[in-house]
Design goal:
The chain is mainly α. Helices cover 57% and strands 5% of the residues. It has twelve helices and three strands, in the order H-H-H-H-H-H-H-H-E-E-E-H-H-H-H. It has a three-stranded antiparallel β-sheet. A hairpin with an 8-residue loop joins strand 2 and strand 3 (182-185). The protein starts with a helix and ends in a 14-residue tail after the last helix. This is Core-binding (CB) domain-containing protein. InterPro entries: CB (IPR044068), DNA_brk_join_enz (IPR011010), Integrase-like_cat_sf (IPR013762), Integrase_catalytic_putative (IPR024456), Integrase_recombinase_N (IPR010998), Integrase_SAM-like_N (IPR004107).
């Protein structure tokens, strides 16, 4: 029965081809969750009979679960997609703050990376990689890119290509939000070592596209394996050793080197200098 309402919701919103594969998967997962809630709580059988009080009740349940504002924002986006698809966009407020959800407090919250825990995780990954574990091989190289270039988790899996120009080498960052690649100059010894590790790992894993993802894994499978393994090794947001903390550490170090927020923002793949407030105090 639950699958029937889920199927109705998914069919109504369509394929959302404009979104990246991981964003689309998250959206569809949230749509399924909302449909299951409406059916189990209210016995809803037709998604086009969705009512405002069902939306309110669902949001109340999210608050009760203590979800982070960013997670709740994603789930609200899915609810809006469903409401819009059934011709009832007006039953969901446009502003998340109407439901007591705001990302402002967590968006600009620079984090201090737990260097000791990160080093422990890297040591474990190195041991596993040297033992031939293919996921660990992928993750070790991806971690080097995050540490040395401040890449996002997805970017670190998809980035491997370098180009030469005017006597300099640039890393071509792929998988960015918006889909547009950016180029980062390979400046330091650490960055050069990371680029070599990526090239060697891609060759060892046998990826025909010279990427870090083992050919037997799809992108989502690789992304999930990286996230779950990192968490299993003790890398969490609570202890400051999650993967995104490496991006914060990079931004803080680079701002200390350059004193230039615009440069840091551009290297991180942000168009607005003000976004550096998410990574750096002051």
């Amino acid at each position: 029965m639950g699958k029937r309402l889920e199927r109705q919701a998914l069919e109504r919103i369509g394929k959302n081809w404009s979104k990246s594969s991981l964003t689309k998967e998250k959206l569809l997962s949230n749509v399924r969750e909302f449909a299951r809630f409406c059916e189990s709580r209210y016995g809803l059988q037709r998604i086009d009979t969705l009512k405002p009080h069902m939306v309110e009740s669902y949001l109340h349940s999210l608050h009760e679960r203590g979800l982070a504002p960013s997670t709740m924002s994603g789930k609200l986006s899915a609810v809006r997609e469903v409401a819009k698809a059934v011709g009832k966009a007006n039953i969901v407020a446009r502003d998340n703050s109407a439901y007591g959800v705001s990302r402002q407090g967590c968006r600009y919250n620079p984090q201090q990376a737990n260097g000791a825990k990160l080093a422990e995780i890297r040591a474990t990954l190195h041991t596993q990689a040297e033992g031939g574990d293919r996921v660990a091989l992928m993750m070790r190289a991806a971690d080097a890119l995050r540490q040395q270039f401040g890449l996002r988790a997805k970017e670190s899996l998809l980035t491997s290509k370098t180009i030469g120009r005017d006597g300099r080498t640039y890393l071509v960052v792929e998988g960015a939000k918006g889909g547009r690649p950016r180029e980062l100059e390979v400046r330091t010894v650490g960055q050069q070592a990371a680029v070599r590790l990526v090239a060697g790992t891609a060759e060892r894993l046998g990826n025909a596209n010279h990427r870090l993802i083992p050919p037997e894994l799809a992108l989502k499978e690789a992304y999930d394996a990286q996230r779950n393994t990192w968490r299993a090794l003790g890398g969490t947001r609570e202890n400051g050793a999650h993967m995104h903390a490496e991006r914060h550490a990079y931004a803080q170090a680079r701002l200390g080197e350059t004193g230039d927020r615009r440069t840091v923002a551009e290297e991180l793949g942000h168009g607005r200098e003000s976004v550096t407030a998410h990574y750096v105090h002051g």
